[in-house]
Amino acid sequence: MGTGKRGLLAAAVAVVCAITVLGAPGTAFASPSPTPSPSTSSTTPPLPSTASNKDLEAVRTKLEALYHDAAVATDAYNAAEEAAKKQSAQIVELAKKIVAGQEKLDDLKDRAGAAARAQYRTGGLPDEAQLMLTDDPSEFLDGAGRALQGQRATKGLISELARTQEDLEQYSKDASTQWQKLEAGRKTKAAAQKKIEKQIAAAEKLESRLEKKEKERLEQLEAQVALEAQTAWLDTGILDDIDSAASVQGKRAVQFATAQIGKPYVWGAEGPDSFDCSGLTSEAWRSAGQAIPRTSQEQWKQLPHIAVEDMRPGDLIIYFDDASHVALYVGDGAIIHAPRPGRTVTLAGAGSMPILGVVRPDA
Predict the structure, then answer these.
(1) So which residues are the catalytic ones?
(2) Residue 295 DSSP class
(3) Residues of the chain whose pLDDT is less than 70?
(4) Which end of the chain is more exposed for a tag (fewer CB within 10 A), N or C?
């Protein structure tokens, strides 16, 4: 392998390595032993009626907003990461094409040089002129055929040289474009990571001001709010309409998600030891043999939409108006999801958060 080829491929591999390093989510923000969210059948004891309940509700609302903003930024980070993977792969392919194109161009130049040297050895006269100087009719006819073939070969060589040169120029332009996109994506990722860390740090600082008993009461309040939302959703009679059985792939996705219960939420994580919300759903469906978009927003945009009353186990429920959260429906009004930093993959009520809609990966 030539030095130029090694250099181009080494550069392409370096890009992939750089993307891998940039893609590492870094600090894990999950606590070592977080408290799971309640399942659809759990009950939550009422909070004592004290003046501090109002303050705790304000804390809960603020935490919800901080973690929501962190989730939106996480989606932006994951989207930039996916784009970077594709761009790095395209750069690798372009590098290979440039190497092959350069080798082809060198070969064509060698052939052109050989033709020029052959002409020089015949005194620099073109084939047509040499034919005019021959007295042998048969030699003239044979030479005329060879001259015609030579003309065609020369024209073909010149055309191929031009095309190869144009291809190399286009590959170089494409590679430059991908590098620019890669750089823009790096900045997007960096900005998203900064926002994620800022929002989570603010939430952790807010929670750190609470005493142990207040933290316990805050968790009870969060569970109570979720239970009330789930109860209101169930009271609509929605489960009377939801009776579809899971597909074969849907069952596999549910089995995968169930096996992850208890693992911590870490933004940007796709397993095997931790997950964020869309990392869990995309990996669950990948284990079922179906590739789906990495982020909750792209899952909402790209996957077929299903009416809530028609959903079946394995379908994905998208939450909030900005599609910033996603969970896997497992049946009986329940979901498995990775809630937020400080929590683990858990079973929860499907109606415990505002539902935007439902999508089906294997529709």
Answers:
(1) 277, 325, 337
(2) S
(3) 1-52, 111-157
(4) N
